Amino acid sequence: MKLEVYNQILSLMHKYGSRDCLKSIALQFPGVTYNTLISIYSQDYQKKTRKNHHKHHKPAVMEEYYQRYLEGVSENLNDPVMLRLAEEVDLSHSLFARIVLERYLAHSSYNGENPPKGVVSQIIKDPSILTDKVLAYEIQQCILNDPNYGPLVDNIKRSVGYEYELILKEKLHNRNISFIGEEEMRAKGYDKTPDFKLEIPIAVDGYVVNWIESKASFGDEYSHQNYLRDQFWSYWNRFGPGLVIYWFGFIDELDCNRDRGIIIKDSFPTDIVLLDDLLQEKT
C-alpha cells in the first residue's frame, strides 16, 4: 500500500471517528481487505490512547471518574454506567474500568494509596472475584464491549498471531524448508529470536534470507520502526539478513532496508530459490 493511500484511509477514519466506518471505507478502497482496515484502525487507536494517557490518569481526573461512576450507579439506571461514561470522556471502555477499579481499591483496601498493578490486572481478567458484584458486572461489560483494548482483545490478537505462525510453518513444510522454531532457539539460550530460523538459507527476490518473522498486523511506520529497533536489527546482528511478513499489508515505502538485510512481504513469497536449486544449476 502506498503511503498516500494509507494517509487517505487514516483521514477517513479520523473523520468518521469510530470503528463503524470500516465497511464504508472498504467500499471506497476495494483493493484493501477488511482485516487490513481493522489492523490500521486498531494501531491508530492504540497510538491515540498512548498520546492521551496522561490526560486521563491525573489523580484528580481519576477520582472524578470514580465519583461519576458512584453517582451513576446510585441512580439505578438499567444501562451499564461505565460504558456510557467511557464514551463521554472518549476513553477505551477497558481503561475506564481499570481507572474506576483502581480508585475503588484505593478507597476500600489501600487507605487511599494506589493498589498494586498486579492486583488490578488480576481482577480485570476475572472481575467475579470482587465482592462488589455491581462493580464486577460493570467491569465485565466494559471488557466484553471494548473492541480496541483490554484482555479480550489481547487474547484475540494472540490467537490470530498464533494462527498465522501456523500458516507460515505449514508453508515452510510444504516447500521442504527446514527451520528451528522460537521455543527451540530459546532453549538453546537465545534471548531475542525470530519466529523461524532457517537451517539452510534461501533467496527471495535475489536477497539471502536466514530467518522469517510473522506479524499478523499491518506494517505502519510507527510499529515498523519500533520492531526494527526492538527486534529486527537484533535478529540481523545474530543471524544475518531476514524476511518479515506483515500478513495484513504494509506501507510500501517502508521496504527500504533490503540492501541492509531486511525484506518485507505481505504474504509467503512464491519466488523462493533453494540452495539445492542453486547447486543443481551450477552442476
TrEMBL record:
Its main location: cytoplasm. It comes from Actinia tenebrosa. It is found in: Cytoplasm; Nucleus. The lineage of its organism: Eukaryota, Metazoa, Cnidaria, Anthozoa, Hexacorallia. One of its GO terms (cellular component) is nucleus. It comes from the Eukaryota. The keyword Hydrolase does not apply. Keywords: Cytoplasm, Nucleus. This is CDAN1-interacting nuclease 1.
